[in-house]
Amino acid sequence: MRIKISLLLIALLTVLGTQAQAKKWTLRECIEYALENNITIKQSALDIENADIGKSDAFGNFLPTLNLSASNFWNSGLVTDPITNTNSTQTLRSSNYGVNVGITIFNGLRNIKTFQRAKLNQLLSQYNLGKSKDDIALFIANSYLQVLLNKESLKVIEKQHEITLEQLQRTKELVDAGVLPQGDLLEIEATSADELTRIVQAENSVQIALIGLAQTLLIKDYESFDIAEQEYLVPGAEMLEKPIDQVIAKARDSRYEVQIAEQNKLIAEKDLEIAKGAYYPSLTGGLSYNTRESGANTFAQVLDENNPVLTQTIGFVEGTGQNVLNQSPNFTLVERGPSSFIDQLYTNDAISYGLSLSVPVFNGFSSRNTVKRNKVNVKRAEFQLEQAELDLDSNVYQAYLDAKGAAEAYEASQVAVIAQERAYEYAKDRYDVGLTNAFDFSQSKFRLENAQSQEVQNKFDYIFKLKVLELYFGIKIADIKL
Question: Would strands 298-303 and 282-294 be described as parallel, antiparallel, or unpaired?
Answer without folding.
Answer: unpaired
